[in-house]
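Need residues for this backbone.
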């Protein structure tokens, strides 16, 4: 079997799927890319860690014969990274599994592994599967808006992913680490059914990486165990998080009479400067709200350092002071798409709601942040 492919094109596809390979694989074959070559020049390449499988589709310049063989991932990537753009010829002996890579000025050879040893890719159960198409750009936005808020909690694995909720009214993405909660809803994406699943953090990150390369629609298929994301040039199959996502609506305070409108970038920059003076253990910053003014302050008594800055804002409510972990507040400010934000609060002990002041059509963006005790 022999095929010719562009070195830079191959590198681009391999790098996109290589993130699926675990740093320490329980099976040696999972350190390999699986190449499936066809006579019609179509080339499918697979990478997997059993939990998530990435498949990329590309077209070879030419091919002679067909076959399936596993090739070492690290070796291939290192070779391709250091080669200038050029056609590469892969000459594979399917009996001995010897592989020769012929470049313009050299030759590289190694021995592959039998393709039959590669684990079988999971499938969704046809009679239990749900299917719908989602625009790639919409899926990208939903994952980007929520992924940063997922948890790393071994005791509650359901929090370690993004919740997808499908309904005839909208498509909702939710993530929370119990300190912050993000809900991103699209009114222009609807399903003919009601269903949900929890996409783990790793496959969500892989999708976020490959979606900018694609356009058009993504076909999503899922059952109670697995989900398949079919893109024009890529396919991702992953195991879903088992269990029920907590009722996140229960933690959303309904009555928030204290409202502030403030410039998001000004607040983010001020937070970045003032938080340098916060206690390293607590990372606490205080926001003191009064008429037309917000004072952002922090201190570390152990090192006798402190800082504060005043910001102009529109504030409607009683004078109050509330504390937040600055890193969490900074995350939210970095991931909300609006020049100005609305900060809604009831009292210093209850969650604050952060909303975009300028709302986009068909988008409902909602973020919640739990406060810290100021006098703790």
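Answer:
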């Amino acid at each position: 079997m022999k095929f010719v492919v562009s070195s830079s094109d191959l590198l681009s596809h391999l790098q996109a799927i290589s993130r699926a390979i675990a740093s320490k694989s329980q099976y040696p074959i999972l350190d390999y890319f699986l190449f499936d070559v066809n006579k019609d020049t179509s080339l499918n390449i697979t990478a997997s860690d059993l939990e998530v499988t990435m498949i990329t589709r590309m077209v070879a310049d030419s091919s002679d014969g067909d076959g399936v063989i596993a090739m070492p991932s690290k070796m291939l990537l290192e070779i391709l990274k250091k080669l200038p753009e050029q056609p590469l010829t892969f000459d594979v002996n399917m009996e001995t599994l010897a592989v020769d890579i012929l470049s313009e000025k050299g030759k590289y050879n190694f021995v592959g592994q039998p393709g039959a040893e590669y684990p079988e890719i999971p499938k969704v159960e046809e009679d239990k599967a749900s299917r719908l198409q989602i625009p790639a750009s919409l899926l990208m936005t939903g994952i980007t808006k929520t992924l940063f808020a997922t948890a790393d909690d071994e005791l509650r694995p359901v929090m370690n992913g993004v919740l997808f909720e499908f309904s005839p009214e909208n498509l909702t993405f939710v993530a929370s680490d119990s300190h912050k909660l993000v809900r991103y809803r699209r009114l222009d994406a609807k399903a003919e059914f009601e269903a949900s699943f929890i996409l783990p953090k790793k496959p969500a990150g892989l999708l976020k990486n490959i979606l900018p390369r694609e356009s058009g629609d993504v076909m999503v298929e899922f059952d109670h165990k697995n989900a398949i994301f079919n893109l024009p040039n890529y396919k991702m199959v992953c195991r879903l998080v088992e269990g029920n996502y907590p009722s996140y609506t229960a933690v959303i305070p309904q009555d928030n009479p204290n409202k502030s409108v403030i410039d998001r970038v000004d607040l983010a920059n001020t937070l970045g400067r003032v938080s340098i003076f916060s206690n390293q253990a607590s990372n606490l910053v205080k926001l003191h709200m009064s008429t037309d003014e917000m004072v952002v302050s922090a201190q570390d008594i152990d090192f006798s350092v402190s800082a504060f800055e005043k910001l102009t804002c529109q504030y409607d409510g009683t004078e109050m002071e509330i504390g937040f972990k600055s890193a969490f507040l900074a995350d939210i400010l970095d991931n909300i798409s609006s020049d100005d934000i609305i900060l809604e609060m009831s009292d210093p002990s209850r969650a604050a709601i952060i909303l975009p002041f300028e709302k986009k059509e068909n988008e409902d963006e909602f973020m919640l942040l739990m406060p810290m005790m100021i006098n703790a």
